[in-house]
Amino acid sequence: MTRRESISVIIPVYNGERYLSEAIEGVFAQTLPPDELIVVDDGSTDDSAGIARSLGATVLEYEHGGNGAALNKGIAAASGSVIAPLDADDLWPPDRCEILFTALQGQQTIGAVHGRLDEFISPELGAGDRARLREPNVGVRSTLATAMMIRRHALDAVGPFAEGLIVGTGLEWAGRLSRSDVDLIEIEPIVLRRRLHLENSSMQHKHQLPTYARILKQHLDDGRSTGIRP
User: Fold this and answer.
1) Are 134 and 161 in contact (CB under 8 A)?
2) Which residues have a Cβ under 8 Å from the Cβ of 61 and sit 6 or more positions away?
3) Is 7-222 a domain of CATH 3.90.550.10?
């Protein structure tokens, strides 16, 4: 495939050493590898930065500022014309980059392409921990940034990720995307495998779920569902 555009993957991470290596390895195993992978270490106290370096990622380290701030710093540092965010605990199907990138080609006015996602319960969890988690979504359409490839002009139009939210950062951005004039392509394949585990932000910050629910309601009212529920 002729590459007239370049792909930058951004992974923000905060104390994510348990799952980070699997996420990075999945990026490097893509049938269409990205041009760069930037891991933004958001003030981790574990070995997230060391793991990322050992696997060949470019690592940026900052004091803890939250997921939105880490994403914004990674995007600002990236050289690619197309941005692909990935959470440090999630996974990509091996042909994810190729499918999304192919859909963008020849359509320069399109701001982003998004596909569907499957959620899965992290396989190391025992029965008791699994019972604490909700049922996974399977095969749902999603306009979360982590289910997209996004061109620079779309990022400029929607604006940066919110830096004051503890939960719902991706959902809030998706809501602003839905209210923008950015043109999207929707495709059917699964492009994201979203991990459910006890360290998900919705589990760690349950007191913030009313905020998440408010953001979700606004987004559903706007008419472009992420396919995600709290």
Assistant:
1) no
2) 41, 43, 49
3) yes
